Amino acid sequence: MSSSETLTPVRAGRRSARDWCVDVALCVLAVLFSVMTSDSITSDPDIPAGQLLADQLAGVLACAALWLRRSRPVELAAVLVLAGLLSHYVVGPTLAALFTVAVHRPFRTVAAISSLAAGSVLASSLLHPDPEVGIVTSALIGFVLYGGVIGWGMFVRSRRMLLESLRERARRAETEARLRAEHAQRLTRERIAREMHDVLAHRLSLLSVHAGALEYRKDASAEEVAQAAGVIRGSAHAALQDLREVIGVLRAPVGESAGTDGSRTDGSKTTGEKTAGEKTAGLKTAGSETAGWETAGTAVAGASATSASDPGPGAASSGDSTNAEPTRPQPTLAELSRLVEESAQAGMRVELHDRLPAGGALAVPAATGRTAYRIVQEGLTNARKHAPGGAVTVTTDGAAGRGLTVEIRNQTVPAKGGEDGQAAPAIPGSGTGLIGLAERATLAGGRLESGVVGNGHFRLYAWLPWPT
User: Fold this and answer.
1) Distance between CA atoms of 357 and 65, rounded to whole angstroms?
2) How confident is the model at residue 111 (pLDDT cuts 50, 70, 90)?
3) I need a labelling partner for 222 at 20 to 30 A (CA). Which of 146, 185, 187, 310 fits?
């Protein structure tokens, strides 16, 4: 803060109790100073009694004029400095006025009043020399007296400016801290919403596919219905398990995370047991191109949803200890084949083309692999929602130093109806999946592209950094 800046203006008008105390104290000090230094005036026989009385009355008026020091400090100081040329009893009130100017006015104004006071001291020493000390000593005493009061006032001013600066800095720091906290809370909410959307949308879309098959294939046998119901139950349990893991992270104390086996680090389980209904259904979904209950692509044993004994999307991603986000068992790129197989069991025509070098899926950084996994997961979910029955191709490629590329292509075909000709209802969506994927890719230092290409396929392409 420069010296040319002013502090809060001197309060004029209604005075507080503190203002009254300060004003009365200054007036008393001015009177005491004038009286205690008036020996040379009262004891001088050459000064007539009338002149002495006029000098004293001028001092009284000067003390009364100190009432204006809060509203007119500069004008009051200038008048009192000039009046000091003629009256000794005005010196005390002049010192109070000079102190007020030095405290409440910028350096340029203080310098002008100081120059006027210095000229007044010099002129007074010449006009009214003290025979006991001489002109030079009298002028030096006046310079020291006025200079000391002005210097004291400037010190008080600088201290007040420093305190005001510290208060302003504290207010600014509190404001910035509050804004940072609000920003961190907003980012945390967005991250949690994105994580829950990616996990639950995938699970619930699988559940919707199987439920749709039960709804539109009314000629299914009791055994087929039981198998499909078991898969639906397993998918629902897996969705609840994923939701429980996310909420468990939110409720866990700071520094505590879920274990890789689905358990909390304090030993309490966060996942359920594997359900007996997690078997592969040989049910063709309502969006399939051929009618009938048949195995989608290949007949493979296993669950369409992840169980507690199969970590699946909840598997821990090693080497991601530097990630500042709240962690829970996270998927890696090595589990991409299991994700594609799970979708194939739900009736999707999906193929995975892994063009990474040998062991590349394990060499990909954990954060990059998790982002790629989520991109493929959301791409498969969107394909089930918007193009059921269409063929989907997932391609991964890249190398260390060149980056990791992930591409999902699917046919943009409408869903086909069941035997009664009714179209299968579309799976509802929030429309924010691609937005979340773009945010994920950007945060990972990559980029995401999506849109319909020339051959009528929808293409979702992502490039992610893969350092050497």
Assistant:
1) 93
2) very high
3) 310
Distance between start and end Cα atoms, the chain = 51
User: DSSP string spanning 245-290?
Assistant: HHHHHHHSPTT--B-TTSBBTTS-B-S-PPPTT-S---PPPTT-SS
* Cβ-contact 393, 455 below 8 angstroms: no
**Residue 22 one-letter amino acid:** V
Residue with tokens 């910035």: 176
Helix or strand run (H / E) with residue 104: helix 91-104
- Given the structure tokens 């049910």, which residue do they identify? 283
- Max Cα distance, the chain (Å): 135
192: number of Cβ within 10 Å: 16
- Angle between helix 91-104 and 49-65 (nearest 10): 20
- Are the C-beta atoms of 410 and 390 separated by less than 8 Å? yes
Residue by residue, DSSP assigns 45-73 as: TTS-HHHHHHHHHHHHHHHHHGGGTTT-H
d(CA 443, CA 324): 12
> CB neighbours (10 Å) of residue 327?
14
Confidence (pTM): 0.44
The phi and psi torsions of 223 (rounded to 5 degrees) equal -65, -40
**Non-local CB neighbours of 320 within 8 Å, separated by 6+ positions:** 327, 330, 365, 366, 367, 370
Q: What is the pLDDT of residues 379-416, one digit of tens each?
A: 888 888 888 878 999 999 999 989 999 999 998 765 45
CA–CA gap between residue 89 and residue 61 (Å, rounded): 10
Encoded tokens for 147: 């200079």
**Residues 75/12, Cβ–Cβ less than 8 Å:** no
Q: Give the integer Cα–Cα distance in Å for 160 and 35.
A: 32
Q: Following CA atoms 366, 441, 264, 273 in sequence, which dihedral angle do they give, to the nearest 10 degrees?
A: -100
pLDDT tens digits for 205-248? Answer: 777 776 776 776 777 788 877 877 887 887 787 777 777 776 76
Q: What is the dihedral of CA 20, 24, 30, 36, to 10 degrees?
A: -160
Counting every residue written for the chain, the total comes to: 468
Give every CB contact of residue 278 below 8 A, 6+ residues apart in sequence.
230, 231, 234, 237, 302, 303, 304, 305, 307
CB atoms within 10 A of CB 243: 14
